[in-house]
Automatic annotation (TrEMBL):
Catalytic activity line of the entry: 2 H2O2 = O2 + 2 H2O
E.C. no: 1.11.1.6
Annotated ranges, domain Catalase core: 29-416
Organism of origin: Lophium mytilinum
Entry protein name: Catalase
Family as reported in the entry's similarity comment: Belongs to the catalase family.
Function comment: Catalyzes the degradation of hydrogen peroxide (H(2)O(2)) generated by peroxisomal oxidases to water and oxygen, thereby protecting cells from the toxic effects of hydrogen peroxide.
Top-level taxonomy: Eukaryota, Fungi, Dikarya, Ascomycota, Pezizomycotina
UniProt KW keywords: Alkaloid metabolism, Heme, Hydrogen peroxide, Iron, Metal-binding, Oxidoreductase, Peroxidase
Active site: H76, N148
Any GO CC annotation of this UniProt entry: mitochondrion
UniProt keyword Zinc, yes or no: no
GO biological process, one term: response to hydrogen peroxide
Cofactor: heme
One term of GO molecular function: catalase activity
């Protein structure tokens, strides 16, 4: 009940987030709490006169309405989310000292799924990767996994990310998306061949998931797990859907609701059909990572490649279930902030350059999108069994400003520290330097994964649909040179694929990429390339 306590310290009672708020037993007031007779009552001078500036009720109503929108996410703007819980079923304490990985540990979670390129009102059935973010509210702080539904990504040089994303958004000249104007979409991809693995997934049957319940999640980035002795391993994280996976074809997507995935998730949870996922890890020692680079030219810091699962089998750690819809979408899903640098002791980032950039970019956008005190919002606030203390103060909307505690490291009123038990920052010095050099360089190995998809994973029907999806999408690409270049990249994957695309598009592509210049410089292939003789 909203009753003043009379205590001077209890000043914000009405604005404490009340997720169960109902309209019964409330009183209509202005935002400063004064009772007001009716919401529809503008004050005017006389019967037909102008409005009154003194009418705070109307001025406040309109000016708050004017400010209802916060900036939408620059990517992943359209999304759906829910709450649930995670439980560790198979402890990982041998590899990580993270509290959440110890036997029997569990914690509440919030998950947000999304498409990537479209605006907040865009179609759920876009051919686009899907975001899959999980906030684990552990006893040692919030740990966020900000993942996608595909194990690889379009790039390995973070400086390309804003350029790449611009080509997925509306063309600044035509204001059309790539569904109607695909020239810049293919211009970017055909200039940056390391995108090919992700392109093969995007344009194939896995390109349009049939709702968020029916997809897996993959971090893609290599992480590090550190145990209580300070030993560390590299790690890949997977979320495996217990519902299995389901996809829809391009043709079928046209008949779906723009909110297909939102509806599916919301009503499944509402009806008690709670979706769940297994949490699994692949792990690798530093020595194995060096051998993987030396023998198979797979760099663990390059998220355009996957870790072979036969060599590095998946190991189940736990599972999570979504069993509660948001009571208020804006407060609990729009304002939730997932961030790859929200880590907890025992889970560390690797030197992957794209991950390293993300560690900066997300909290930076959160300060702008939600505000500098975004961590204080109820959905983002840590729920730890100790009283948190730090020296961050003030700023817009500082609801929890840490009272009268000193705002510096005081000797008069000291705070306590947990002793550092292990060195969490041990790096893999020699390897880091050797493995990542010129990030745009294309190597023959970049085509192994895509080739395996074409030759071993896609059946005849999948191949046909793939060629139809690519050629259909290229139909409104106005520059033949771009198509020729992209077919050259597809030819590095498979002659068969490139030949089929030449037939479907009516454009004769380049015979491969060795003689092509990308982004104005030649970075076609590394010198030891075993390129096709034809080039
Ligand atoms: C959202 C940047 C790569 C997954 C975002 C946002 C930014 C961003 C600024 C908006 C966040 C917000 O407003 O809350 C970047 C940059 C990248 C990158 C700079 C590379 C240099 C990736 C990769 C993945 C990924 C590789 C997946 C493995 C996501 C997801 C979201 C997101 C799932 C939505 C989070 C949510 O639901 O709130 N990214 N991103 N991003 N990104 Fe990235």
């Amino acid at each position: 009940q909203h009753v003043a306590s009379g205590k001077s310290g209890d000043m914000s009672r009405n604005y404490i987030e009340d997720r169960a708020a109902k309209s019964q037993d409330t009183l209509y007031t202005t935002s400063n709490g004064a009772p007001y007779p009716h919401p529809y009552e503008a004050q005017r001078a006389g019967t037909n006169g102008p409005l009154l500036l003194q009418d705070f009720h109307l001025v406040d109503l309109l000016s708050h309405f004017d400010r209802e929108r916060i900036p939408e996410r620059v990517v992943h703007a359209k999304g759906s989310g829910a709450h649930g819980f995670y439980k560790t079923t198979n402890p990982l304490d041998d590899l990580s000292c993270a509290d959440i990985f110890q036997a029997g540990k569990e914690c509440p979670i919030t998950v947000r799924f999304s498409t990537v390129g479209g605006e907040s009102g865009s179609h759920d059935c876009a051919r686009d990767p899907r975001g899959f973010s999980v906030k684990f509210r552990t006893d040692e702080g919030n740990w966020d996994v900000v993942a996608n539904n595909t194990p690889v990504f379009f790039l390995r040089d973070p400086a390309k990310f804003p350029h790449f994303i611009h080509t997925q958004k509306r063309n600044p000249a035509t204001h059309l998306t790539h569904a109607d104007d695909s020239t810049v979409f293919w211009d970017y991809l055909s200039q940056n061949p390391e995108s090919i693995h992700q392109v093969m997934i995007l344009m194939g049957d896995r390109g349009i998931p049939d709702g968020y319940r029916f997809m897996h999640g993959y971090y893609g980035h290599t992480m590090k797990l550190v145990n209580k002795s300070g030993e560390w391993v590299y790690c890949q994280m997977h979320f495996k859907s217990k519902q299995g996976t389901k996809f829809i074809t391009q043709a079928d997507s046209a008949s779906k609701s723009p909110d297909h995935s939102q509806k599916d998730l919301f009503f499944a949870i509402e009806n008690g059909d709670f979706p769940s996922w297994d949490v699994e890890v692949q792990t690798m020692t530093a020595k194995e990572a060096e051998e993987l680079w030396e023998k198979q030219k797979i760099n663990v810091f390059d998220l355009t490649h996957v870790w072979p699962q036969k060599q590095f089998p998946r190991r189940k750690v736990g599972e999570f279930t979504l069993n509660e819809n948001a009571k208020n979408y804006f407060a609990e899903i729009e304002q939730v902030t997932f961030n790859p640098s929200h880590l907890v002791p025992g889970i560390e980032p690797s030197a992957d350059p794209v991950l390293q950039s993300r560690l900066f970019s997300y909290p930076d956008t959160h300060r702008h999108r939600v505000g500098p005190n975004y961590q204080q919002l109820p959905v983002n606030a840590p729920r730890v069994p100790y009283r948190m203390a730090n020296f961050q103060r003030d700023g817009a909307m500082s609801f929890y400003n840490q009272g009268s505690r000193p705002n510096y490291l005081s000797s008069i009123e000291p705070i306590s520290f947990r002793n550092r038990t292990v060195d969490l920052n041990k790096t893999h010095g020699s390897f880091t330097g050797d493995a990542v050099t010129f990030l745009s360089e294309i190597r023959p190995e970049d085509f192994n994964g895509p080739r395996a998809l074409w030759e071993k994973v896609f059946d005849d029907g999948a191949k046909e649909r793939f060629v139809g999806n690519v050629s259909g999408h290229m139909a409104n690409c106005t520059d033949k040179e771009i198509i020729k270049r992209q077919i050259g990249i597809f030819r590095e994957v498979s002659d068969d694929l490139a030949t089929r695309l030449e037939k479907a598009t009516g454009v004769k592509g380049y015979p491969g990429i060795a003689n092509l210049k990308f982004n104005g410089t030649h970075n076609g292939m590394a010198s030891d390339s075993s390129l096709r003789a034809a080039n």
